[in-house]
Specification:
Elements lengths: L1 E6 L5 H12 L3 E3 H10 L3 H12 L5 H12 L8 E4 L5 H10 L4 E6 L2 H9 L1 E3 L6 E3 L26 H15 L1 H8 L3 E5 L4 H11 L4
Parallel strand pairs: 1-3, 1-4, 2-3, 4-7
Antiparallel strand pairs: 5-6
Helix pairs in contact: 2-3, 4-5, 6-7
The protein binds BIS(adenosine)-5'-pentaphosphate (AP5).
The site of BIS(adenosine)-5'-pentaphosphate has 36 residues, from helix 1, helix 2, helix 3, strand 6 and helix 9.
């Protein structure tokens, strides 16, 4: 099954993809994670995209498409994958439908206010990528990852100014995907304001996953 997860920043796409990956083995391909990995390793790509991510702007379409295309050629993707945060422009979506048509696009519907609350409290493990929240999804030990005891960090684009910019970019460039995927009959709308458990079971039920 080839799935797209799209929605505002902080809607819960990463958290849910990781859970689906654990339960069903579907690889999670997060363009944000791929870019951050390159930034961390100071690759040529990382140096090119670092300031774009920090400001909350979008990486150019062709560059993003080619990275996803390369990643989906890996053997682990032969039975499908979750594209987490890609496509996020009409150009990316149209190109991807030509390259490798998806089965369903899961739209995480959430309010801007909820996004602000979620992103301002998000903490991430630098080693395993596990996502926490200081109120809604606390680690067992304050500031430490449950999996590997690493010190959790705050993403540089989770500062208020960058969050506002990401929301503007989202409304302008990504929201038109709702109409695009509705028109090609691939959209599945999820109420992402609900608790993690409710969001997860709504997705499983709408995708008919046992
Ligand atoms: P990316 O990493 O994809 O960021 P994003 O889309 O802004 O999404 P986030 O990772 O911020 O949020 P999420 O929806 O995964 O939420 P999460 O599960 O973490 O992209 C980063 C940057 O890379 C972009 O700004 C851009 O520059 C570039 N980029 C990436 N893809 C691109 C593309 N296709 N084209 C061009 N540029 C691209 O949850 C958030 C918080 O909420 C967590 O603390 C979590 O614990 C909590 N939470 C989750 N679910 C719930 C719930 N149900 N109830 C309460 N709390 C919850």
């Amino acid at each position: 099954m080839k799935l797209v997860f799209f929605g505002a920043p902080g809607a819960g796409k990463g958290t849910i993809s990781k859970k689906l990956n654990e339960e069903y083995g579907l690889p999670q391909i997060s363009t944000g994670d791929l870019f951050r990995e390159n930034i961390k390793n100071r690759t040529e790509l990382g140096l090119k995209v670092s300031s774009i991510l920090e400001k909350g702007e979008l990486v150019p379409d062709q560059l993003t498409i080619s990275i996803v295309e390369m990643r989906t050629k890996n053997n682990d993707c032969k039975n499908g994958y979750i594209l987490d945060g890609f496509p996020r422009t009409i150009i990316q979506a149209e190109n991807w439908e030509k390259i490798s048509p998806i089965d369903k696009a899961i739209y995480f519907d959430i309010t801007d206010k909820e996004v602000m609350d979620r992103l301002s409290g998000r903490r991430v493990c630098p080693k395993c990528g596990q996502i926490y929240h200081i109120l809604f999804n606390k680690p067992k030990k304050d500031g430490k990852c449950d999996n590997d005891d690493e010190t959790l960090y705050i993403r540089p684009d989770d500062k208020e100014e960058a969050i506002n910019n990401r929301l503007n970019v989202y409304h302008k460039q990504t929201e038109p995907l709702i109409e695009y995927y509705t028109n090609i009959n691939k959209i599945v709308k999820i109420n992402a304001v609900n608790s993690f458990e409710d969001v997860y079971s709504e997705i499983k039920s709408k995708l008919k996953l046992k």
